[in-house]
Structures
1.
Amino acid sequence: MEQAGSHRILGRLKVALTAVLVLVSVGAIFAQERPQIDDPSKGMKTPREAAEAIKRQADLIHAQGPFASPGATPRMKKRHGVFFLVSWSIPDTELKSYMRDAFRLGATVCFRGMIDDDFKKTVERTKTLAIELGKEAPHTAIDPIIFRQLEVKTVPALAIVNEQEGMIVEGAAAPGHLLSLMVREQPELRELAEWYEGTQRSWERGGPIETPRPSMPKLIGVKHVSSHLRRYP
C-alpha cells in the first residue's frame, strides 16, 4: 500500500514537473523576465516540498506572463531603452528596412507572436532575416507583454521606454521622422534624435558611429504621439 502511494506521488510530481517545464519553455520563447526557477533537487527532502515549490513557480509564471486572465491589467515590467514593435504581416522588404533601422538605432525588435502559431516556422523566418541582414541584424524578441503594456495595436511602432514610463509613435516611417514627432511632445528627446541623425550620416560613409547613444530621458506615464502615417494591424 505504501509503495503504491509513493508511486502515485512520484507520478503526480512528474506530471507537475512536465507542466512547469512547458510553461518555462514558452516563457523563454516570449522573452519574459521570469523569476529564477526553483530547483526541486536542491534542498528538497520530500515530494510534498518539491510539489509546493513547483506550484509557487507556476503561480508566478501564470500571474506575470501571457497566461494571465483576459482583461487583467498587466504589471508594467521595468524596461529601459528603445523598442521597434513590428508584425510578421509587414511585407518583407519593408520589414527588413525597419529591422536595419532598429539595428542602427540600437533598438530591440519585438514581434507580438509567432507565424501561424508555429515555433519552427518562426525560427526559420527569423534566421533567414538575420542572414539577409548580416551585420545589421538587430536583437529580436517575441514579446506580447510589451504590446499590452504600451497598448500598441498597430505597427510599426517606435517606443522609448524608461523604467515604467514610455512614449510611443505608430506609423510606417523612418526612425528619424518618428523621433521628430516625439521631440515635439518631449523636447528632452532631441539629443537622441540628433544622435540618430549622426549614426545615419556615419553609416552612409561606410561605418557605425562611435559615440554612445544618449541615456533615456525621464518620462511621465505612457503617452502615444498622434500621427497620420500608414499602419498595419
2.
Amino acid sequence: MFELGGDIYLMTTSNQRILILIFFIVAISIWIVIPNNPGIHIFGIEKDIKTRLGLDLVGGVQALLEADLPSTTNITAEDMDTAIKIVENRVNGLGLNEAVVQKAGERRIVVELPGETDPEKALKTIKTTGLLEFVDFSDIDNSTAISMLNTKIQTDYEQSVQAEGTITPTVASSETITNTDVVTTSTAASSTVFHTVMTGKYLKTVQVSTDPQTNQIEIGFELTSDGAKIFADHTSTHIGKVLAIVLDKEIISVPSIETAITEGTGRITGSYTLEEANALAVQLRYGSLPIPLKVIESKTVGPTLGQDSLTKSMRAGIIGFIIVMLFMGIYYRVPGLIANLAIIVYALIAFASYKFIPITLTLPGIAGFLLSTGSALDANILIFERLKEELRAGKRLDMAISLGWKRAW
C-alpha cells in the first residue's frame, strides 16, 4: 500500500507477480548484455553469448559463388539447397558464426564473412568439393607410398556430369564390389587406377586433436555402422599394407594398417599445422558438395571502415537517446522519468534478445533498433497527454491513469 497525492493505492497480488516477473527478466537481460559473457555451458548445453556484428561494421569478405558447370547442365533446387547447407556448415565450422549464406538466383550463392582476415583460405575451404577416399595401396611399399604424397592419382570412384545434365557418381565398370562404394576397374596401359575401398560419406564425426606422446596434430574420425563394417572387412585382410587417404584425388596421408580396425574409429596423421588440420576437418565433417562451385566475384571491407561506421552510429544513437530522455524528464517531470526508465528497460530486453538468439547487427539493424525505441517512447507521450486531459476533467489519479492508458491505446 502506498500514498500519492492524497490518494491511497493498493498493490494487488497480480501486480506484485507482474513486478517480480519484470525484475526477473531485467536481471536475466543484464546478465546477457554484460561484456565477455561466459555463455551457458551446463547440463549438456553449449551456447556462447556474444554480440554478432555484420560485415558493414567489422569488415570482412563478401563473395558470390556460382555452380562451376556448363549453362546447359540442369541443376536441381535440391542440389543448390544442399550446397548452401554444406557451405553454411563449413563457414560455421571455421568459427565464422556471424556469416550469411543465402541463395541468389538458380545457380549462385552469396556468402558474407564478417571479421574474416584470410579471405583466400576461407573461400578455398568453402568451395572445395571435399571428396574423401580411402584407397587401397596394397601393391605399393611404404617408401614408394610416402614419395607419392601430395600427388594426384586416378581412382575407380569419381563424380561427373552426364550428358543429360544430372550429377551422379560414376564408376569404371559394372562389376560390383561387396560393401564398397565403387566397382572394379581395369588398369589402363598409360596410368594406374587405384581401388577406392570407401568414401567419406561414411564419416560420422571428425575432430582435430593432438597426440599426447608425439605432440603431433592429427584428425580423428568415427565411422557409421556401415562404414565400420567396410573398414573392418578391409583392414582385417590387409594388415601391414598401405591404405592411402585421398582428398579430391590428391594423396594426403599414407598410413599402414597395423591392426584390424573393427570399432569404426581411426586417425589421419601427417605434417599438419593446426589451421590446416581444422580446414581439412571442416571439409570432411560437412561432406562433399553436390556441385562444384567457383568464385565469380569477391570484395573485402576493411575493418577500419567497419569500425568507423560502428563508432559513428553508436555515437549518434547515444546523443539522440540522451536528448529524448532530457526532454521527457524536463517536460513531463515524474511521469517522464518513469517513461525513461521504461525505455531503458525496453532497450535492455531488446538488445539482450538480439544477443541471445543471436541476431547479426548491421547498420540498418541498429537504425531499426533505435527507431523502435523511439516508437515505444511515442506511446508513453500519447498516454501522458491523455492522462493530463483526464486530470483536467476532474478524474482521480488512479482513474486518470487507467483511462489515459485505455483511450491512448
3.
Amino acid sequence: MGGTANRYHEGMRFSERTSWELGENAFAGAIREARASGRELLDLTLANPTVCGFDYQESALLGPLSEQAAFAYEPSPLGLTAARAAVAEYYSAAGSHVDVGQLCLTTSTSEAYSYLFRLLCDPGDEVLVASPSYPLFDFIARLDNVRLVEYPLLHDPHAGHGWLIDLQALRSAISQRTRAILVVHPNNPTGHFCSLSDRAALQALCAQHNLALIVDEVFLDYGLPGTTAVSFAAASSPALTFVLSGLSKVCGLPQMKCSWIAATGPAAQVAAAMERLEVIADTFLSMNTPVQHALTSWLGGRDHIQTQIRSRMIENLAQLDKALAGSHCNRLSMEAGWTAVLRVPRTIDGVDFCTAALGQGIMGQPGEFYGLPAGRVVLSLLTPPDVWRKGVALLAGLA
C-alpha cells in the first residue's frame, strides 16, 4: 500500500507552505521507543489539564450543551451577542472594559492568529515575535504566507521578574515589511509578565511605526502569589492592540474549542479592524452554537478549575525547588503559567541531558523546542503530584 501511495503522488506538486520536514527527530523517536517498551515512564511534560486528575464536575459542564437553544443555527460572524457578553464580563471582573463590539470569537487562539495575520499582512509581510516562545507560530505564519522575525528576550536574574525584552534589538528588527509585534503575556515557557515599562515601550513603538500589537494572554489568570496580572485590555493604548485568550487555559477546557480576539486602541482603527474581521469570520463561520450558548456558564464557573490548577502549580514548584536544592540543576525565575524552565548540565556522560533523563525513565521537554539555549529543560507544572514527586527527584539526582 505504501509503495502504491508513493507512486500515486509522484509528480504531484504541493504548496511550498506545506514543505515541512515531516520526519521524526531522534528525541521523538527515543520517546516513542520508550513508550512502546512498556517500562515505567515519568512524563513531566503533561500539559493537557483534562488528563491531569483535576475535578471538572462534568455534569455541570456538559449540561448547558443540551439546552434547546443549542439546536438552533444562528450564524453570527463575530459570535453570538450573549457569548461575547460573557467574554466582556470576564474582562470586567478583572477591571478591564471591553465592549461586545470589540470582540470576535474563534475556535482557537491558532485560528485567532491566522485571522489577524490575514487582516494585517500581505504575502511576505513580517510579524516580530519573541524568542524564546512557543514554536506553533511558525506553522501558522507559514500557512498564511507571513514571515516571522525574532526579537530576543533576555534573562536577567537580578531583574524584578527575571526577563526583559531587548528593546534595542526589537527596534532594529522593524522593517518596511513589518506589520505587527507579537508578545505573549505571560510568556510560554519563561512564565514572565511583560513589565509596565516594556508594555509602554511596545505601545509607543507600535504607534510610532503604525504597527499592530498582538498580545497572547492565555495564561494571564495563572499568576503566582505576589504577582500582579494586568491585561493589555485594561487601559487605552495609542496602538491598535489585539488581545487573545480562550477556554483552553481560562477554564482548562481545550476540547471545547472557543477563543477570542479583543480589539483595543484608537477608536477609528478598532472600528475598521472589526469590520474586516467580521468579513474574515463570516467567510469561515467556524464557531459552533452549543459552545457559544454554554460560554456564560463555563466562564462563570472558571474559579473551580483555576483554583485547582493554581494549587497544583504552587505545590509542584515547592516540590521542585526542594528536590533541586544542592543539585547541579536550578530553576529559572517565573511569575506565571504552567511551565518551569530548568538550567541543567548540557550532557550527562556525553549524552544530551534530556536523552539521558529519558534513559532513566524521565520525560522532559528540551528547551531548544522553544528557542531556549542548550542546557535548558521545560517541565509542566500540571503533572500529577505522585508522578512529579518521583520524576523531579530522579531528575535532580541525574545531575
4.
Amino acid sequence: MSDKTKNKSVLQANGLQATLAELKQEVLALYLADQIPWVVGYSGGKDSTATLQILWLALQDLKPEERTKPIYVITTDTLVENPVVAAWVDVSLEQMQTAAEEQGLPITAHKLTPEIHNTFWVNLIGRGYPAPRPRFRWCTERLKIDPTSRFITDVVKQNAEAIVVLGTRKAESSSRARVMNRLEQQRVRDNLNPHTTLPNAYVYPPIQNWTDDDVWMFLMQVKNPWGHNNKDLLTMYQGASADGECPLVIDTSTPSCGDSRFGCWVCTLVEKDKSMQAMILNDQDKEWMLPLLELRNELDIHDDSHLRDFRRMNGQVYIFKTKDGEEKKVPGPYTQKAREQWVRKLLRAQQYVRAEGPPEMSNIELISIAELREIRRIWVMDKHEIEDTLPAIYEAETGSPFPDGVLDETQIFDKGDLNLLHELCDGDEIHYQLLRELISVERQFVSNGRRRGLFEALEKAIRKNYFEDEEDAIQRALALKGRLDEGREKVDSLLDLHEMGG
C-alpha cells in the first residue's frame, strides 16, 4: 500500500457523521444477519476503544427485542501490564459492565489471564526461562494468544461459530496491511475475514481503513457511551509519547508492540520501554514506577551468560559454530542463584510501589501468591532445590511470613543437613547438585509409594550432573559434536558415491 493511500483520512474525506452513520449501518446489518455471537477485543487503547464505541452506538439504535445476540468484550491481562494502563482498563471494564446493564445492551466484559503455569514470572523465575528475545519469544503465545484462543474456542464450541471484532488497521504498518489485504481475498462473507488459526471463527475489522488522526478525531468528538473519559485516554497517550497500543493478540500474524507502546512493563522484545520511561519523565507523580523500569532494564542485558547455567534444562550442553567459525556454547536457564535474585528484586519493587505509589497501587501484585506457590513447587519438586528458599526470601523482602507452611512434610533434610552435605562436597557445586537431586528423587518416589520409573529418574539426574566442571562439560560436548560431524561427512560421502554409481 502506498504512503498516500496509507495516510488518506476517511473522516476528512467523508465527514465524521456520514462515516459514523455508514459504519453503524454496516455493524447493524452484520449483527442482525444471524445468531453468531461476537467477541470484541478490547485493550483499553485508542483503536479498541474506537471500535467498541462504534458497536455500542450502533446497538443503541436497535429496539430492545432486536438485541438478542451476545457480545463478549474481552481484554487479556498478561499480569505484567503497565500498572497505569492496567488500572485504566480495570476501571473501564467496571463502567462498561454497569452501563451495559443500565442501557439494556447484551454486552458483558471479561478479563482473561494466562493459566498459572504459563505466567511470565512462573516461567522466568520458576523454570528459569531467560528474558524473551526475538529468537526465543516464549511469552506471546503463553500470555496473550492462549487465553484469547481458549475463550474464542469455548464460544465456538457452544455456538458453532464466532465473530471476532478487532480494532486492527492497515495504517498500523505495511506488514499489517499486507496480512489484512491477503485475508480479504479469502472472505466467505462481506466484511468477515477468516481467522488465521481458529476454525469457524471470523474477524471483523470495522476501522481497518482509518488513520491515527481518524481514530483520535472520532474519540475526541464522540462521547464514550459507557462513561469512560476519552480525553483522559488522550492524556495518557501524550504522557507516554506512545504512538500505538499493544493490541489484543489473537494469533502470530498480529503485529508486536512498537518501540513506544502500552504493554508489558517487562517486555525485552523492544530496545527500550519508551512509554514507561516517558511517563516517569513527564510526570513526577509517576516516579514510583522507577523500580519497574530498572528491573526491566536489568532483564534486558546483551550478555546474561553469567546468570545462566552452562547446561540446558535437560542437562545437555549445546555447542554451535558462529559465522566466524568460533565454537560457542548455548547458555541454559537462569541459575538457582539468579532466580532467587530475580524474586528478591521483584518483591522489593512491589513493596516500593505499594508504599510510594498512588492509593490505587497500595495492594498491587507485581507477582501473585499463586505464582509464588507455583514457583516454590517447581524449585523444590521439579528442580530438586530442596533448600526451599522462597519462604525465607519472601519474609525478608516483605516483612511478612509466607502464607503457606511446609511444602513437603516428607522432607527429612533440614538446613543444617544440607549445609553439611555442601561442606562434604568441598565446594564442588555440580557434585552437590547431583547428590541433592539423587536424594530428592529417591524421597519423591518413596513418598509416592511407587518404584516404577525410579531408575530412569536417577539416571537422568546423573547424566545432568556427572561432569567434573563446566570446562569438562564443554569439552565432552565438543567431542560429541566432532563425532557427529564426522559421521555426517561419511554419510554425505557415501551418498555422493552412490549418485556417481560408485
